[in-house]
């Protein structure tokens, strides 16, 4: 049994990619259709779950992956001193322990945890440490007792016991007290034949063990080899009964149970043939092309099972194997072949069986990553060019269209009887969306091979096509030439996508929900001419009829295609939880739009408020679903999926905003806190926000350069609708106020205001305590309480204030109160700043825009509340500081939605923006 221990994680992420595999048996293309029930059992999705995911699977190698192919096992014996390891290039190799110092084996194997521990601690030298970390092959370690802790990129294989030599990896493998024994058991399970042993000397220097390398910290006496040989003797009988040939290439070895040989007598690969038991899918043949090219350099002749020989036309020593196929398109193409010869496989031909990459999907491996487990590549030559004569045929076809426009091939999603995978396809209306928005950019050619009852479009109607060849009118060879000459390809996940990538033609792919795009790419590919859009969150259930999430914001598709087609690459800006009215205004900013695609998160409760804006801002404002239930990993995925460069993030103490800030920090993305201000203005703060103990005001006022000639941009509308103003006489009469009495006006707040909830006051931690401290500490003062307009309708959570003896509730405008009174108090409110503009004196408790003791009287301690009227009378506002604050906040800190300063604030550092 193979285990994947997740208790540790180290080395590189690139290494992790290649550590994963899944045990399975080869599956024919025809049988894929019948395997859905198996996939469901393995870890599928319920049909009513649109973002279901396959279960995490344990990693494993597959029995028989190397069937019919020879392999070499490299041990540590001293006979390998001076050995030319380049002789093993292109071979399947299991290297034991320090073998990676000399080569890159297909599999690095060990059963000794101490080897891993010594390596990672550097006790075996820097060279081995770096080789181990950088190694891109498959690390397979035996876990003898189950207690060893390896990182996730090391495949752990179970022990079957001391001498229990097995023939299936599922049962574990024997260990024989040495890694060479286990490596041999692994090679037998993989199906290798013959198996060559190198460095299996089984002898030391007469006293202790010796090696071709510098050895290990723990050295055993030479007699240990006697015990090793006994275990091999028992295994040799089991191996011979399977008809597998094992040849020991160490001529002086004490291991006598296997036939001896010399590497000079090992037949060169260039004198042998190999048969690639290839796939029947047209696109699959492109993915295996680099591997066939590699084999063709090593073997005399490569025989390939393929329905599309044209893929291999440039490889001289490739021959094609007779095959029968029932797949409609493939069968039609094979029957139309007139100049391709097909052969029987000669005897004594090595066979390469691909493990079916579908099981690789279950392990989150791409097609080529899974191929690599069977045929590791030292180079990756994937680019493909059709024959010149096929290109000339395509040129003649294009000439007949009589157009000067650039050519765009469209391959719309289809369903076929042989494989009804509905969830793999993107919504068909997205193809029409591109045609509608870019009608004059290309000469659009619709290509498919539909046939009634056998293969059909998901949605047959389409408008804006210039030429239609949807019934297989264009032969494969002409199609290959046409693809090579085209200026753009718009396609689903299909053969057309693979052709575009392999020909390095501009290719725009629209994905459905059931198979990750990464499965069809390789990190060694040049993808500068490739772009894709896909749903988020992505389902990846692998089930054909599952109701996957296939929604992609239309604006996202339009933005992506426009940039890709025209070669314009804007950055991406995400608006997170800013009210819709402000978000749509930001999306109007022409300075931002010149450089950014603007996205917003579509919260369910705000969806209705966005209606009416989609068309107005269709090129700029897009909607990302699912934010309301977002986890931290969801946010990481969203930021990666949309390649976000900057996030405008509101309410930094709000739970989701906190997670967003943390996700941005992890990914190195600039995150800016945003809060509402006056008019069409917001404040953008890198440090905190209005009610933070620290914010940009505190941090950058010291470097702000005040300019007396700068006009201060005062707000035109500063508050919610107010009652009509009344005269002082009517005010005093209405509320029975007396002339000459001590009055302080309390400007009320919503008690769930974030600045109240996140208060940093040491002695007053909620609104009721604040009101009680004011009123009880000043019994001779009359407090006029203006409740927040929010409470004019609905439940009033500040109703308790009416029951306080020295409080008079007033229902008048701010202008009336500012006109007739001089002393005010507010816990934390923007109206403090407005009052400061009118030279009013404020006593404040919480954090706000003017947290400065020279501008407002701060209620920091219990004694601060006593004799408040007298303290406010004596309090003097520093006029110079007030000028600086007002100019800083209104001209630089608060920014209008349409201003160029918004672009400057987002793109510059705070020091640059504030004038250091």
Outline of the structure:
The chain has 916 residues and is α/β, with parallel strands linked by helices. The protein contains 30 helices and 36 strands. Strand 25, helix 18 (607-610) and strand 26 (621-624) form a beta-alpha-beta unit.
How big is the Rg?
37 Å
Chain-averaged pLDDT: 84
Derived from helix and strand composition plus strand pairing, the structural class reads: alpha/beta
**Low-pLDDT regions:** 1-59, 614-619
Describe the overall structure:
The protein is α/β, with parallel strands linked by helices and 916 residues long. It has four domains: 31-56 and 382-551, Rossmann fold; 59-265, Alpha-Beta Complex (sialyltransferase cstii, chain A), CATH 3.90.1480; 269-326 and 334-374; 728-896, Rossmann fold (3-Layer(aba) Sandwich), CATH 3.40.50. The protein has 30 helices and 36 strands. The strands form six sheets. Strands 1, 2, 3, 4, 5, 6, 7, 8, 9 and 10 form a ten-stranded mixed beta sheet that branches. β25, α18 (607-610) and β26 (621-624) form a beta-alpha-beta unit. α11 (388-401) packs across α13. The longest helix is centred in the N-terminal third of the chain and has 18 residues, at 224-241. The chain is elongated and about 115 Å long. It starts with a strand and ends with a helix.
